């Protein structure tokens, strides 16, 4: 006979309970499953383990779906099931056991031999329990006893008696407890012996797939990805999902309702208020309402909000009762998100006007405990902007407005700051926000106001003194940023010197906790030095940041510094090195998932300029478009000059000399940059040369000093085109650019010398110089210098051995100019795709870099490089470096 059939049987021993009242048959009835019930097979399979263990615990919050889950499971059980729903009115052990014996009788289990039902509501004879246990242990067919709402049983004596019967019943009884709280049974013993099956809140929670299926049972269709958002909001809470589905059925647009429903206005609120909040004491209700303003809380913080000292036992009890208070560990808790929303709405109705004060108390408590992010959030919610800005500045965290994963959230938070907030810290935050958007006039006005206010303050002592030092150091950082944006190197140097003096008064702990401040200061200093053309000094400041590792906090300054170092490499004629640094910059920020709009995007501009030198014009255009599409907020002179130069070079390469001249106009700044002026003049000179005006081209570069080798080579080329080969060679001999610059400059210098030799009839010297230029250019794939050289070079490139040096990279064709082979046309497939880092290593391998050089260039260890090399060899099915490069070229991986 099944449990379902047993419900309709008459009780085996009709009678009354110990109080003389008739037994309530509804307490023995297995709850009816609604038509919209969804069977979840994963939980049913888990419950099947109950048949292998004497004790099963289904423990979850109100509305978690515990009762219906067990009811559904009992429906398919072949063995007898005794169901008892407990009642708060049953205070004594006699009443509990009388009802349990009656439940056993309903499902066909006879009463204990020689034993009668308890007659005293508060007492049960131990002999009766012993006879019950003995009778159960002798059964051929075990009986399953389900005690629903067991959390209503609060008498420890009943728990001891139940454990006695369960222990001595042996395999004759399987006990299933459905409860919101932890029962008083010795669960640790059952766990240790593998004699207990447990299903708890986390497992009871609906998965997105189950939520979508549940909604479909209600006639609602929601994609799994949309259901996932609903599950995240409800934490998979069964009652919440069902109530949402029922409410959505009444909506004209169910899908939109499910995506945007407001918990405090639905049946969900009614359920939680009735089943959870109103069942609590007034003190507990007050605590729950007040902590609803917090994302997480501990007893001490809760006490700060209530003004009492009883939070610890209350929170412990709420968690034990599964009252939608979740333990996070280390004495921290949080509310179920829906419960928190409903409590927040209830707080505003029951205690209007209290919410800002609660946020204020929370902000100050958290400030004392050093939790800055939460302090700022609650300070802003309280509308206490002077306190909130002061916390940010005093913590030396102003750099977080410029870098890190949370800088957008922080900027949005302070965008709500009211204009009435008047303090040096508030002005510094305003200045930082404006300067971060390159809004110079407003930013400098706020910065000046803050500096004046700080200067007028009396010298504080103690903690206030360190707070003032943090504010002054923040001023120095913003001064350095202003110097960068205005192209003022002297201002940047003064700001750096001031920062060095102030650092001694700032607690070392703050400097260690905020490495981004130092990184940003050095970045701004390095950028202004670069703008001034002091490449060596700039490299020193930039390298200090680029070689460090402060996690996501310094990822953006590191990207900026690598980008600036890449620009220096490019300007000094090292395109390969510049490309590697630019790629490393973007790889670093990608590793920390920083927003694309972070930084100045100078790395993209350097890559575009390198692509032009390689005559990869479509790639250069794509990179420039990418740099333009991303809304980079940092618009400093270095970046704008880099953008202008890369754009002008691309336009010139495409033959649009007029547009190239317009793009190369000097960038306006407080201090004129010698290299920016020189590069602009170099592009303009090349444009005039392309238009057949060599004299004009030569004049443009006459004033450029010899300290810019690229411009010297450009001037020599213009002199040669103007019919002055002697003057061209004299320029090159005097400046000797070949000895202190990279191949992008030396190749062009060799081509000028080769052309001069060719025009002088010295074919041997011309070929030798051209061969040298090809050797130098081949490693870097520099094609543009040969395209710019003019028609004289073409006949020479067709001769042996120059044609061999040019074949395959400068002149289209196979590496040795031979006939195509089948293996060249159809290379064997790669065993496995190369990772991004393996491609980085392979590219450097192709540039003949040693293992140590690759490690230094990628900022990794030698052992890491060796590991990547082994993987590359395996995937390319080769054993040597040379073979790996050849194979990669065959597969067009290089």
From TrEMBL:
Pfam families per record: AAA_22, GerE, WHD_MalT
Q: Which UniProt keywords apply?
A: DNA-binding, Transcription, Transcription regulation
Question: Where does the HTH luxR-type domain lie?
Answer: 827-892
* Keyword set includes Kinase: no
Which molecular function terms from Gene Ontology are attached?
A: ATP hydrolysis activity; DNA binding
Q: Which GO terms describe its biological process?
A: regulation of DNA-templated transcription
What is the superkingdom listed in this entry's lineage?
Bacteria
- Cite the record's Basic and acidic residues compositional bias ranges: 1-11
Residue ranges of the region described as Disordered: 1-23
Q: Does the keyword Ribonucleoprotein apply?
A: no
The protein's name is LuxR C-terminal-related transcriptional regulator
